[in-house]
Write a structure and sequence with these properties.
Outer membrane lipoprotein wza fold like, about 270 residues, five-stranded mixed β-sheet, alpha+beta, disordered N terminus, wza like fold, single chain
């Protein structure tokens, strides 16, 4: 029996280490993807190097027209293009009568200041100035994180887009389920709005009666956990819900703890008589 327990313990350690490794890989892959998608713009400083041609190494700032001047080539349009795209473009231009098989590297050495507005249910809403490529989660961190009234959805409106050009972020999938596809890139001029959850009221034999957010999928058990859990006198099998249905109050008795709540529900936890 002792040997079996040691083996299980070792397997558990391996599993934890594996999960940490996977999480780290996902983080770096996501960060690298965001960096590659960054669109160069006015004010960015690019460092351009050409292997075995030190005289062509240059550091240039993108002007207001989105152009840079490169030795041998002259003015090149780089605005609103990704770094890989710019690298390919410069390589092609140098190969066109200047160098044989040029090997070009382009780096964004200094990012221009980006302005993003984040509104709604975050701790520090307002205008945030950012540098470089940034993801939704990084922006959320800059804004102090979600407030306790935050709902399950964030909307991202792109600068210059119409009202239909809106990206939706499922906060529940991103934060609770780890769906990194929801961790979208934030662009210069974006307006991000964090929705407010519906609210429910909990009263009776819970440690902290009061109002708590109850977004989509919130259950009786989850709302009770938010209120600090049952007291020692609570009747866990006798929980009631008061709900307004077609402008009339209805009482649901002895509801299961996995019952899904609706906005403005009142959860009543009675005292046990035993």
């Amino acid at each position: 029996m002792i040997q079996k327990r040691i083996i299980v313990g070792e397997d558990l350690v391996r599993l934890v280490l594996y999960l940490c490794f996977v999480s780290a890989c996902v983080f770096f892959i996501t960060t690298d993807t965001i960096a590659k998608e960054y669109q160069v713009g006015p004010g960015d400083v690019l460092k351009i190097t050409v292997y075995d041609n030190d005289d062509l190494t240059t550091k240039v700032m993108v002007n207001s027209d989105g152009k840079v001047v490169i030795p041998l080539i002259g003015p090149v349009e780089v605005g609103n293009k990704s770094v890989p795209h710019i690298t390919q473009m410069i390589t092609r231009l140098l190969a066109d009568g200047y160098l044989v098989n040029p090997q070009v590297n382009v780096f964004v050495e200094e990012y221009r200041s980006k302005k993003v507005v984040i509104l709604g249910q975050v701790k520090n809403p307002g205008l945030i100035e950012l540098s470089g490529a940034i993801s939704f989660l990084e922006l959320l961190s800059k804004a102090g994180g979600l407030s306790k009234e935050a709902g399950d959805t964030a909307t991202i409106k792109r600068s210059g887009g119409n009202d239909k050009d809106v990206t939706l972020v499922d906060l529940n999938a991103l934060i609770e389920k780890g769906d990194i596809s929801q961790n979208v890139q934030i662009l210069d001029g974006d307006t991000v709005n964090i929705s407010k959850a519906g609210m429910c009221f909990v009263t009776g034999e819970v440690k902290n009666p009061g109002t708590y957010p109850c977004g989509d999928g919130t259950t009786v058990l989850k709302i009770i956990a938010l209120s600090g859990g049952f007291t020692g006198k609570a009747s866990k099998s006798g929980v009631r819900i008061v709900r307004v249905v077609e402008n009339e109050k209805k009482l649901f008795k002895s509801v299961p703890l996995d019952t899904k709540l609706q906005q403005d529900d009142v959860i009543v936890v009675p005292e046990s008589f035993f």
